[in-house]
Amino acid sequence: MKFGILVLMVILLAVVVGLFYISFKILNKVRQEERAENAGKVPARQLHPKLQAELQQKHEQEQAEQNNK
Fold first, then answer.
1. Transmembrane residues, as ranges (predicted)?
2. Residue 1: its pLDDT value, please?
3. In the chain, where the domains are located
4. Is residue 68 classed exposed, middle or buried when 0-12, 13-18 and 19+ CB atoms within 10 A define those classes?
5. Rounded CA separation 33/40 (Å)
6. What stretch of H or E contains 59?
7. What is the pLDDT of residue 26?
8. What contacts 47, CB < 8 A, 6 or more positions away?
9. Tens digit of each residue's pLDDT (9 = 90 or more) over 4-39
10. How far apart, in whole angstroms, are the C-alpha atoms of residue 59 and residue 53?
């Protein structure tokens, strides 16, 4: 009886380890596919409105300086 339970536990442990291994392989494959898809894309990021206003003001000042020269 104890031998049967021990064998069952070893089989169960092997199945769980096998499932972790398979899921890890699938996860890595999906990550590689996502990296390949997103390699050429530029992430769409937005600046905070205050930072965007400061950046716009800085560009306007640089253009004004270039026009005055």
1. 6-27
2. 86
3. 1-39
4. exposed
5. 13
6. helix 49-68
7. 98
8. 55
9. 999 999 999 999 999 999 999 999 999 999 999 888
10. 10
